[in-house]
Design brief:
alpha/beta; globular; four-stranded parallel beta sheet; 8 strands
Length: 164
């Protein structure tokens, strides 16, 4: 169990990695998702950190779980979906360096976590819960009802303040 949990998306960011000789863009696989990044940074700072979310039962989900484990993030509350794939984001960079994301989730496993899947004992003993569901201005509105409700219920459990 961890003192700090991050709840939300965990996905693959495909980032530019050059071009083929024919000028076709090449992308490389990287772990992504703001909440997962927060959990990793907390662990790097010595905080007992965990992640709550869902990935697909696929090569990307396995890669993401292994990445969190290597970063000392508790993955007890990371679940695998047999029904939905791990979400993917392709990142393009403009000439000025601004990022533009194209998301592939129909739906993505990260949008399917439910309150029933979360270890309530771990969450009840947490000191902090950081939650952010999806990288859009209307993230909560665009989340499926089960995920929205589950995130809200999770946010009510830790003893200390959670962040929206």
């Amino acid at each position: 169990m961890a003192d700090f949990y991050a709840l939300g998306e965990l996905l693959i960011d495909f980032t530019p990695a050059g071009k083929t000789p024919a000028g076709i863009p090449i992308f490389e696989q990287n772990p992504g998702g703001a909440p997962a990044n927060v959990a990793v940074q907390a662990a790097r700072l010595g905080v007992s950190a965990g992640f709550i979310g869902k990935v697909g039962q696929d090569m990307f989900g396995t890669f993401l779980r292994d990445t969190l484990v290597k970063q000392n993030v508790d993955v007890e509350n990371l679940h695998f979906s047999n029904d939905t794939a791990t979400s993917l984001a392709f990142v393009q960079l403009s000439e000025s360096g601004d990022r533009d994301f194209s998301f592939y989730r129909n739906p993505g496993a990260d949008t399917q976590i439910t309150f029933d899947e979360v270890n309530k004992d771990a969450l009840a003993n947490a000191k902090v819960l950081c939650r952010r569901l999806f990288p859009t201005p209307a993230s909560t509105v665009l989340s499926p009802p089960t995920t929205r409700t589950g995130a809200h219920r999770c946010g009510q459990m830790p003893k200390s303040a959670s962040t929206p």
